[in-house]
Amino acid sequence: MKVARGEIAKHIVLIAGTTTLLVLCIIYPFISGGYDRLAGPLSTMTQVFGIVGLPLALVGLLWFVMPRRRFVFAIASMVVGTFVAVILVLFATLSVGNAFGILTLAVWVYIVIQRIPKLKHLKNEDADDFNFAPLYLITLPTLTLIFQLILATPMTRWSRSHAISNANEFIGDIEEYHAQHGHYPLSLQAQNKDYYPDIVGVEKYLYAPQGNVYNLSFEQPRFLLDRFGTREWVVYNPRDEHRIYSHTAWLLPPPEQADPSQGWYASGDTGHLHWKYFLFD
Question: Has residue 76 been placed in a domain?
């Protein structure tokens, strides 16, 4: 079984390019840039592909070691791929909305329609001809999973630190206001943000007065498998009296409850003075 070097090089480039694109989708919410509301869902869906797509790698491996049964494994890959697509459609719908879910489904239907003629051709293909499809099935979901596990900790720490550093100007202006007026602002809610975290997955800073002090916070994007289902809020408090709540109703406690529950299950230091992160399930 001979395969032209040019054909091998072409598929290596395609696999490498597709993997790079998938990795960029994963880290997109964690890189420097303006806020993009689709960044989080796109990253999550790509990470989901790396997890639920592992059965595709198994089909590809079986196809690779038993190439004469390629038609059976090609059909199996389409069936498993449809299952993966349904999961992605579900995540697209829940994270963005029905329109994005329908669009994701339409993309998969288009892929299936494009593959049908190739499946028919595969049935009549010479059994000794080498087929590169198993390599795609093996490498793409596997590498997607590996890279998200490798990048989770460093990308989370970097993006968190970058957003914290970019808050310095905001904090400086708040402290200047305090120096001039003798108290912190009662509210900083406005149409335009003016202070930007410069992380694609972080929309804005939130200011909340607290007695004679205040909390400045933002929601940090997280990797899917980094404590699955967890949401992280990063909070600045100049007196280290951090408060961050999971429910608005908890801010309206009965008179006898002076300090309402905040709802987070874990917290940690960020490595920046007066900044802490809080994890919510």
Answer: yes
Could you count the other beta carbons within 10 Å of the beta carbon of residue 140? 20
Last residue of a domain, one of 112, 128, 152: 152
State the amino acid at position 4 in one-letter form.
Answer: A
The answer to the question of residue 147 being in a domain is yes
Residue 157 belongs to some domain of the structure:
no
What is the tens place of the pLDDT at every residue in 20-56?
A: 999 999 999 999 999 999 999 999 999 999 999 999 9
Instruction: Supply the range of the domain harboring residue 114.
Output: 5-152
The alpha helices in the chain, defined as continuous H runs, are 5-27, 39-52, 54-65, 70-95, 98-123, 133-165, 168-181
CA distance 211 to 163: 25
Nearest to 260 by CA among 250, 274, 268, 270: 250
Number of domains in the chain: 2
Output the CA–CA distances (angstroms, integers) from residue 21 to 3, 27, 140, 200, in the order listed.
27, 10, 11, 17
Separation of first and last alpha carbons in the chain: 54
pTM: 0.90
Question: Are 115 and 192 members of one domain?
Answer: no
